[in-house]
Amino acid sequence: MSKRYRGKRCVYCGRPGVSDTGDHVVARGFFLPSERADLPQVPACARCNNEKSRLEHHLLTVLPFGARHAAAAHTLDEMVPGRLQKNARLHRDLLAGWDTRWLGAYGQPWVEQRILPLDSRLVTHLCEFMMIGLAWYHWQADLAPPSQVRAEFFSPGGAATFETLFANQRWGARLDESLGGGTFAYRAAQDPNAPSRTIWRFAIYGGLVMSGAAGQPTIQADAVFALSNPSPRGLNPVQGA
Ligand SMILES: [Zn+2]
What InterPro entries does the record point to (predicted)? Predict the structure, then answer.
């Protein structure tokens, strides 16, 4: 491991001097082996790296089943069977939870989509890790605690709200990046007056369809929306004044 990533501040938890690895912010496993060069890396401590890896491992096994992007279909064929063989229990859960529904909108052709037995919170939590890592990688912006980060799946109305917010001329730096031929894409904008205030839009494998935890409604999502804010204390230094 390069010295570059050792003994630095962990980008994710913000603790100084504790990093011992260069974490791939967007896991290499999302991409075909030919598409893994020059992916963003940041210093991370073992604790954060392990927690993030746990989320990635689960999602990388499950996500391609719900994706609509061509690259995802390729990834599914090339890489997922090996992962499932190594994880027999997850394979059984997938088969048990598998469901196929016909989804469509008025006036449009009906399309068959597969619904996944996946807890959406796993996806949004991973997106929170990724926005912290990418903000540091691109902007050296610190989104670690006590800054607040939050990621959610878009509702249909949420996508329009994001576009309106994103179009605001007051944002400063912006990102519009695509990795692995569109396998993973993200857009972001940063407040020029508050570096840790950012908004993000993540599209993984061209969109996902999944069922939530038991009792939750099915989620059909083209993207995850995320935002960060400076710590509340930093926001209101003279509260009541
Ligand atoms: Zn950490």
Answer: HNH_nuc (IPR003615)
- Distance from Cα 13 to the centre of ligand 1, integer Å: 4
Q: What is the mean pLDDT of residues 86-113?
A: 50
Q: Give the strands of the sheet with 148-153, arranged side by side.
A: 148-153, 224-229, 194-204, 184-191, 174-179
Distance 116 CA to ligand 1 centre (A): 30
Q: What distance in angstroms lies between residue 105's CA and the mean position of ligand 1's atoms? A: 44
- The upper half-sphere exposure of residue 239, i.e. CA atoms within 13 Å in the direction of its Cβ, equals 5
Average pLDDT, the chain: 77
Q: Ligand 1 centre and the CA of 9: distance in Å?
A: 8
- DSSP result, 25-52: SS-GGGS-GGG-TT--EEEE-HHHHHHH
- Whole-number Å distance, alpha carbon 177 to ligand 1 midpoint, is 25
Tokens, residue 68 = 């609509």
CB-CB neighbours of 175 under 10 Å: 17
Distance 95 CA to ligand 1 centre (A): 35
